[in-house]
Amino acid sequence: MENRTRLRGPRFALDGQQLRKIPPFEFENWAVIALGGIPNKTQVGDMGIDGRIYPVGASPNDGDKLTPELDFMDDWYPIQVKQMDRVGRPDIDSFEAAMMRTRRKKGFFVGFDFSGDALTEIDGFFRRKHIVVIPPTVREIRDEHIAQKLA
């Protein structure tokens, strides 16, 4: 039970090897919360999105909806988390499809590392579609060196 408590915040004592061994859903929750996001309640059938980040400056659009006070809830960034040593291009392709399906302009993909093909695809996707995929690594999150990537 003690380990579960430590997983809830971004600052914790687990190293990379320990993070590789925890159950996948706990790892997803750890990564999403560490980025400042909210994990999905359902772990199966999440359509490639493990969590969401709601920007602090989100404000409702002017519209004629019945519940305009909830308009800000459509301003969010998807988070995908993979508990694998090297995220590959097919993983990035799937996330890009999820981003396009949900009409997001910025998203985060967390992994222990990324292949060269994955990083090339992230760059190409931005050039083709003007959609940003930010690839923070577990080490960057653990060491709290992600501020520049989150901007």
Question: What are the key terms here?
Answer:
alpha/beta; Dna-directed Rna Polymerases I, Ii, And Iii 27 Kd Polypeptide, Chain: A, domain 1; about 40% helix; single chain
Itemize the secondary structure elements and their pairings.
Blueprint: H1 2-6, H2 16-21, H3 24-34, E1 38-39, E2 51-53, E3 77-81, H4 89-101, E4 106-110, H5 116-129, E5 132-134, H6 138-142, H7 147-150
Parallel strand pairs: 3-4, 4-5
Antiparallel strand pairs: 1-2, 2-3
Helix pairs in contact: 4-5
Describe the structure.
The chain has 151 residues and is an alpha/beta fold. It has one domain (28-150): Dna-directed Rna Polymerases I, Ii, And Iii 27 Kd Polypeptide, Chain: A, domain 1, CATH 3.40.1340. 38% of the residues lie in helices and 12% in strands. The protein contains 7 helices and 5 strands; from the N terminus they run H-H-H-E-E-E-H-E-H-E-H-H. It has helices at 2-6, 16-21, 24-34, 89-101, 116-129, 138-142, 147-150; strands spanning 38-39, 51-53, 77-81, 106-110, 132-134. It has a 5-stranded mixed β-sheet with strand order 1-2-3-4-5, sandwiched between helices. Strand 4, helix 5 and strand 5 (132-134) form a beta-alpha-beta unit. Helix 4 packs parallel to helix 5 (116-129). The longest helix is centred in the last third of the chain and has 14 residues, at 116-129.
